[in-house]
């Protein structure tokens, strides 16, 4: 069982994934050490997992091949399967097609 801390009361030396990333680090395979809970009204608390900063590893550098693969994946999300055009934006998953194909009766 991991330790649970209230919002803003976690001890020094622990950080969330986003905080690690801002420091140029990544968890590096370590297990979650603790969690922070932020209470909310009418819903369950927001939970953030904490990792030890001293065990974190540096972020792997972006290589040319990784950048090309990422660009190709993002470009694939812009192509409409219905009209086979580049929509110019990431197609919403709820529609599955570009907006003109999803709503052909709407004025443009």
Summary of the model, kept short:
The protein contains 3 helices and 6 strands.
Draw up the topology in text.
Blueprint: E1 3-6, E2 14-15, H1 17-22, E3 25-26, E4 34-38, E5 46-52, E6 57-58, H2 64-76, H3 99-102
Parallel strand pairs: 1-4
Antiparallel strand pairs: 2-5, 3-6, 4-5
Structure commentary:
This protein is 21% helix and 20% strand. The protein has a 4-stranded mixed β-sheet with strand order 1-4-5-2. It has a two-stranded antiparallel sheet with strand order 3-6. A hairpin with a 7-residue loop joins strand 4 and strand 5. The longest helix is centred in the middle third of the chain and has 13 residues. It is of the alpha+beta class and 108 residues long. The radius of gyration is 21 Å and the shape is flat. It has 3 helices and 6 strands; from the N terminus they run E-E-H-E-E-E-E-H-H. The model has no long low-confidence stretch (mean pLDDT 92).
Q: What are the key terms here?
A:
108 residues; single chain; flat; 4-stranded mixed beta sheet; alpha+beta; two-stranded antiparallel sheet
- Rg over C-alpha atoms, rounded to the nearest angstrom: 21 Å
Alpha-beta classification: alpha+beta
Stretches where pLDDT falls below 50 for ≥5 residues?
Answer: none
Number of helices: 3
What is the molecular shape?
Answer: flat
Beta-strand share of residues: 15-25%
Distance between the termini: 56 Å
Total strand segments: 6
Biggest sheet strand line-up: 1-4-5-2
